[in-house]
Amino acid sequence: MRPITIAPALRRMAAAALPALVALLAGTTFAPAAAPPIVIGGTVSQTGAFAEDADFQVKGMQLAIAEANAHGGWLGRKLEFKVYDDKSNAGTAVRLYTRLITEDHVDLLVGPYSSGITQAVAPLINKYKMATVEPGASMPGIYVKGNEWNFQGTASSLTYLDELLPIAKKGGAKTVAVLALKSAFTLACSQARIDQAKQLGMKVVYQSSYSLPSPDFAAIGLAIKSAHPDVVIGCTYFPDAVGIAKALHDQGFAPKYFGETVGTVEPAFGTALGSLANGIVGNTSWWPNFKTANSPAIVARYKAMFHTEPDYHAITGYASIQVLGAAVQGAKSLDQAKLRNWLLHHTVPTVLGTYKSDPNGLSTGFGQYLVQWQGGALKLITPAKFAQAKLLVPYPGK
Amino acid sequence: MLLALQLLCDGVLLGGTYVLIAQSLNLIFGVMGVVNLAHGSFIVLAGLFTVWFAAHAAINPLLAIPIAFVVLFGVGALLQPVLLEPLMGLGAQQAELLSLMLTFGLDYVLIELGLQVFGSSYVSLPYLQSTWSVAGLTISKSLLVGSAFAAALALLLSFWLNHTGFGKTLLAASQSEVGAVSIGINVRLVRLVAFAIGVGLAGAAGVLLILVEPMAAETADDFTILGFVLIALGGLGDYRGVAIASVLLGIAQSAVGFAIGGDAESVLPFVLLILFMALWPQRFRRAA
Question: Which of A70, A284, A307, B178 is most buried by its number of CB atoms within 10 A?
Fold first, then answer.
């Protein structure tokens, strides 16, 4: 009788079961766990006054994060974006950033939209020493000694329309009127243009600030007409940019050069003013034909993802994630002190241009360029190598 | 001299745009005792609708005036019996306080509605963008048309109140509810119609205002505050006084804006409000 041996049978059973067992164990206990995602936190104004511009900014960030994840994330870890609605309210934003830092324990932060809201959260960011790139705050007053954990991710408002006065002076302009909405950003912008005019030897014949709501710009328009400047510069947002243009027209006055800052690049500006918009100069930090890093490809992917054209807010949002990613991968760490040090001492080529910071976090790399309404459309005037048209002079005003 | 005349002309036209804001609120607050903090929301919703209407219908935006009036009259006629009428039985003082709280909430709802439907951006309407030159004065056509229509509608309201049976009934009911009931006036119906007309005229004001200035959903409260300032200056329920106050404020703002600047122009209505409330607090008291 052949002896019964169980060893071969066991071996066969074991051989059959082993792959399944390995597979089971691999899926459960013994395999190394996947690294948790790097969580990037921030707020965006999904509702309230800033919702439309902020929506572009957050979409730009979402695209950049999705693309980074498609390439394996940062430091071998996927990225997760934790974003709350600050309702365009600075107080809400402060509460939400506190929550992101102290309860959600996010790894990284990005700034909110608008100078005002960023100004409100900047001390908190400083208190918790989170090196934060801020795409929505052009106001230079945020990036000062004592706020050194905040890094500007957009062009400074000091550069808004800074190319217009030298061009006007070359064209023979001698006198300037400067108007400003009473907000931190616009007042800083107007002071920069007044100082620039004086440096250029141009005479500032009228300067004024106003608050919104200002239902009537007629009186200001009449005062400007009386001063009869060659150049009018408005440091504006959209409603006052429209109001001042209408008021100058209603008073029958057209300066030779007429520039207004924020508001002019919005399509609604052309809709609101019709032919009156033609000849008005505005500024932008990005234009679709810029040959910055991967600009056409990013525009194409943005359109594919969101079914709409990006504006400069979207590009600024995208660039802020590019800068943050470069810092994380350059410093090879999520340590905030290392990230801050990296952000202070490195430049990053982004779709918005070159990121570069001064010792307080103020952007010195991103620029502002001139655009002008011509024939019912915005045309890029500077930089010369990408210009779509020459500056139309004088401003027709009709 | 010409400069002074230009300032006067600009001021009168600016005041003209104020008249309808103030008189429509005066009907609701001054006559009916409803502290309507949602008044500016009705104005702004109509203004935003006008931009949409002009873009999609491609016809004269002034045609939005009857549409806005009728639609918002209907909205007012629906809201008054549901939200405000139940407060009216609580006594005049209680009703005023509670209507303030209720319309405060309604204001938020309407602003959010405007944000959802029309977005958060400022919008404006290029209409009659040219000027007339008359004896050296420059007159904006859009401002003149907006101001003239607003003043005409405010005059029509005044005429209706003082020279028609229902208007006189309304004034009578506002002065003495008990007396009105005792002679058989349907006070509930009177209140409903007054509120609906006030809201309808706020709609008409919105259509005219968007012709002369940009608006966004969140600017609603600016118009509400302006309306209350003008009522305080002109006198609660005093139509002639409020019309004069509107024009005088327009002239004063033009002069101050020219001489001092935009900041002083913006703050002027509030300085005047504080002065008037301190010196003549009775101007905010309803006629008993």
Answer: A284
